[in-house]
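Archive maintenance. Older records in this collection stored only the sequence; we are now back-filling the structure field for every entry so that each record is complete. The fields below show one back-filled record exactly as it appears after the update. Entries are processed alphabetically, and Signal peptidase I is next in the queue.

ARCHIVE ENTRY
Title: Signal peptidase I
Organism field: Halalkalibacter akibai
Length field: 204
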Amino acid sequence: MSRKTINYVRVGNAVVLALLFASWLNIFFIQPYIVSGSSMEPTLAGESLLDTDKVGDRIIVFKSAYLMGNAPAYGEMVIIDSRVDKIRTLKDQFFDSPILAFFSNKYSNEGNIWIKRVIGEAGDTIEFNDGHIYRNGDLLVEDYIKEEMRLPDELFIIPEDHIFVMGDNRNNSSDSREIGPVPVENVVGKVVLRFYPFHRFNLL
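Back-filled structure field:
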Protein backbone atom coordinates (compact mmCIF):
# COMPACT_ATOMS: atom_id res chain seq x y z
CA MET A 1 0.00 0.00 0.00
CA SER A 2 1.41 3.41 -0.96
CA ARG A 3 2.12 6.13 1.58
CA LYS A 4 -0.61 8.28 0.00
CA THR A 5 -3.18 5.52 0.44
CA ILE A 6 -2.11 4.99 4.05
CA ASN A 7 -2.59 8.71 4.72
CA TYR A 8 -6.08 8.57 3.19
CA VAL A 9 -6.95 5.61 5.40
CA ARG A 10 -5.68 7.43 8.47
CA VAL A 11 -7.73 10.53 7.63
CA GLY A 12 -10.80 8.37 7.02
CA ASN A 13 -10.35 6.60 10.35
CA ALA A 14 -9.98 9.94 12.12
CA VAL A 15 -13.20 11.25 10.53
CA VAL A 16 -15.10 8.11 11.50
CA LEU A 17 -13.81 8.29 15.09
CA ALA A 18 -14.72 11.99 15.28
CA LEU A 19 -18.26 11.24 14.08
CA LEU A 20 -18.64 8.40 16.56
CA PHE A 21 -17.41 10.58 19.41
CA ALA A 22 -19.73 13.46 18.41
CA SER A 23 -22.65 11.04 18.17
CA TRP A 24 -21.85 9.60 21.60
CA LEU A 25 -21.81 13.11 23.09
CA ASN A 26 -25.11 13.94 21.35
CA ILE A 27 -26.86 10.80 22.51
CA PHE A 28 -25.85 10.80 26.16
CA PHE A 29 -24.51 14.21 27.24
CA ILE A 30 -25.05 17.46 25.34
CA GLN A 31 -26.91 18.44 22.21
CA PRO A 32 -27.61 21.70 20.41
CA TYR A 33 -31.18 22.57 19.42
CA ILE A 34 -32.78 25.32 17.35
CA VAL A 35 -35.83 26.88 19.00
CA SER A 36 -38.88 26.77 16.75
CA GLY A 37 -42.15 28.62 17.21
CA SER A 38 -43.21 31.27 19.71
CA SER A 39 -44.33 29.19 22.69
CA MET A 40 -41.35 30.18 24.88
CA GLU A 41 -41.38 33.91 24.13
CA PRO A 42 -40.15 36.23 25.52
CA THR A 43 -37.54 33.95 27.14
CA LEU A 44 -36.57 32.16 23.93
CA ALA A 45 -37.15 33.33 20.37
CA GLY A 46 -38.07 30.71 17.81
CA GLU A 47 -37.84 30.33 14.07
CA SER A 48 -41.01 31.13 12.17
CA LEU A 49 -42.30 29.61 8.93
CA LEU A 50 -44.05 32.91 8.22
CA ASP A 51 -41.01 35.13 8.81
CA THR A 52 -37.88 33.73 7.16
CA ASP A 53 -35.80 36.62 8.52
CA LYS A 54 -36.49 35.62 12.11
CA VAL A 55 -33.59 33.68 13.62
CA GLY A 56 -34.38 31.04 16.21
CA ASP A 57 -32.28 30.90 19.37
CA ARG A 58 -29.64 28.18 19.46
CA ILE A 59 -29.49 26.40 22.79
CA ILE A 60 -27.48 23.66 24.47
CA VAL A 61 -29.31 20.86 26.27
CA PHE A 62 -27.69 18.75 28.99
CA LYS A 63 -29.13 15.29 28.38
CA SER A 64 -27.72 13.61 31.49
CA ALA A 65 -29.23 16.11 33.94
CA TYR A 66 -31.95 13.78 35.15
CA LEU A 67 -30.11 10.49 35.43
CA MET A 68 -29.53 8.64 38.72
CA GLY A 69 -32.95 9.52 40.11
CA ASN A 70 -32.75 13.27 39.56
CA ALA A 71 -36.01 14.91 38.49
CA PRO A 72 -36.79 18.25 36.85
CA ALA A 73 -37.38 21.09 39.32
CA TYR A 74 -39.73 24.07 39.34
CA GLY A 75 -38.82 26.76 36.84
CA GLU A 76 -36.34 24.70 34.83
CA MET A 77 -36.65 24.72 31.04
CA VAL A 78 -36.63 21.23 29.61
CA ILE A 79 -36.82 19.43 26.30
CA ILE A 80 -39.62 16.86 26.26
CA ASP A 81 -40.87 14.19 23.90
CA SER A 82 -44.53 15.15 23.68
CA ARG A 83 -45.64 11.62 22.76
CA VAL A 84 -46.64 10.92 26.35
CA ASP A 85 -48.51 7.72 25.48
CA LYS A 86 -45.44 6.21 23.83
CA ILE A 87 -42.72 4.58 25.90
CA ARG A 88 -39.36 6.05 24.90
CA THR A 89 -36.72 3.51 23.99
CA LEU A 90 -32.97 3.62 23.48
CA LYS A 91 -33.75 3.83 19.77
CA ASP A 92 -35.59 7.13 20.33
CA GLN A 93 -32.62 8.43 22.29
CA PHE A 94 -30.26 7.47 19.47
CA PHE A 95 -32.35 9.21 16.83
CA ASP A 96 -32.63 12.38 18.93
CA SER A 97 -29.07 12.91 17.71
CA PRO A 98 -29.21 14.90 14.44
CA ILE A 99 -26.02 13.18 13.29
CA LEU A 100 -27.51 9.68 13.44
CA ALA A 101 -30.89 10.89 12.21
CA PHE A 102 -29.26 12.51 9.17
CA PHE A 103 -27.47 9.34 8.14
CA SER A 104 -30.55 7.20 8.75
CA ASN A 105 -32.99 9.58 7.01
CA LYS A 106 -35.11 9.38 10.18
CA TYR A 107 -35.15 12.85 11.65
CA SER A 108 -38.92 12.68 12.16
CA ASN A 109 -38.95 13.29 15.91
CA GLU A 110 -38.56 17.02 15.38
CA GLY A 111 -42.28 17.87 15.68
CA ASN A 112 -42.54 15.85 18.90
CA ILE A 113 -39.66 17.59 20.66
CA TRP A 114 -40.90 20.58 22.67
CA ILE A 115 -39.18 23.15 24.86
CA LYS A 116 -41.22 24.00 27.96
CA ARG A 117 -40.91 25.17 31.57
CA VAL A 118 -41.58 22.96 34.59
CA ILE A 119 -44.58 24.27 36.53
CA GLY A 120 -45.51 21.23 38.61
CA GLU A 121 -43.82 18.19 40.11
CA ALA A 122 -45.17 14.79 41.16
CA GLY A 123 -47.91 15.07 43.78
CA ASP A 124 -48.73 18.71 43.02
CA THR A 125 -52.18 20.08 42.33
CA ILE A 126 -52.15 22.66 39.53
CA GLU A 127 -55.26 24.82 39.30
CA PHE A 128 -56.17 27.46 36.71
CA ASN A 129 -58.60 29.98 38.13
CA ASP A 130 -59.61 33.34 36.66
CA GLY A 131 -56.46 33.62 34.54
CA HIS A 132 -54.10 32.71 37.40
CA ILE A 133 -52.19 29.54 38.24
CA TYR A 134 -52.20 28.04 41.73
CA ARG A 135 -49.83 25.26 42.80
CA ASN A 136 -51.05 23.43 45.89
CA GLY A 137 -53.22 26.44 46.64
CA ASP A 138 -50.43 29.04 46.32
CA LEU A 139 -50.58 31.66 43.58
CA LEU A 140 -47.62 31.41 41.18
CA VAL A 141 -45.80 34.69 40.60
CA GLU A 142 -44.03 34.34 37.24
CA ASP A 143 -42.08 37.27 35.85
CA TYR A 144 -41.04 35.36 32.73
CA ILE A 145 -44.42 34.96 31.02
CA LYS A 146 -45.19 37.01 27.93
CA GLU A 147 -48.58 38.48 28.84
CA GLU A 148 -51.66 38.10 30.98
CA MET A 149 -53.03 34.61 30.59
CA ARG A 150 -56.36 33.66 29.11
CA LEU A 151 -56.93 30.26 30.69
CA PRO A 152 -60.10 28.22 31.16
CA ASP A 153 -60.58 27.07 34.74
CA GLU A 154 -59.06 23.59 35.10
CA LEU A 155 -57.45 21.40 37.73
CA PHE A 156 -54.66 18.83 37.30
CA ILE A 157 -53.19 16.42 39.85
CA ILE A 158 -49.68 15.39 38.88
CA PRO A 159 -49.04 11.62 39.19
CA GLU A 160 -45.88 10.01 40.51
CA ASP A 161 -42.90 10.25 38.13
CA HIS A 162 -44.56 13.00 36.09
CA ILE A 163 -44.17 16.75 35.66
CA PHE A 164 -46.45 19.52 34.43
CA VAL A 165 -44.97 21.82 31.78
CA MET A 166 -46.08 25.04 30.09
CA GLY A 167 -44.68 27.51 27.59
CA ASP A 168 -43.87 31.05 28.73
CA ASN A 169 -46.13 32.36 25.96
CA ARG A 170 -49.16 30.91 27.71
CA ASN A 171 -51.71 32.11 25.17
CA ASN A 172 -49.86 30.48 22.27
CA SER A 173 -48.40 27.23 23.60
CA SER A 174 -49.16 23.54 23.29
CA ASP A 175 -48.17 22.00 26.60
CA SER A 176 -49.49 19.92 29.52
CA ARG A 177 -52.88 21.58 29.19
CA GLU A 178 -53.17 19.66 25.92
CA ILE A 179 -51.19 16.45 26.48
CA GLY A 180 -51.46 16.18 30.27
CA PRO A 181 -48.65 15.58 32.76
CA VAL A 182 -45.42 14.40 31.15
CA PRO A 183 -43.62 11.21 32.31
CA VAL A 184 -40.14 12.01 33.59
CA GLU A 185 -38.80 9.40 31.17
CA ASN A 186 -40.06 11.64 28.34
CA VAL A 187 -37.79 14.47 29.48
CA VAL A 188 -34.92 14.50 26.99
CA GLY A 189 -32.78 17.01 28.88
CA LYS A 190 -32.35 20.35 30.62
CA VAL A 191 -31.81 23.61 28.73
CA VAL A 192 -28.60 25.12 30.12
CA LEU A 193 -27.26 27.67 27.63
CA ARG A 194 -28.22 29.96 24.76
CA PHE A 195 -25.19 30.39 22.49
CA TYR A 196 -26.72 32.21 19.52
CA PRO A 197 -27.52 34.98 18.64
CA PHE A 198 -24.28 36.08 20.25
CA HIS A 199 -25.75 39.24 21.80
CA ARG A 200 -28.24 37.04 23.70
CA PHE A 201 -25.61 34.54 24.91
CA ASN A 202 -26.42 33.49 28.47
CA LEU A 203 -26.87 30.63 30.90
CA LEU A 204 -30.47 29.54 31.32
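Update note: DSSP finds four helices and twelve strands in the chain. The two ends are 53 Å apart (CA to CA).
Entry marked complete.
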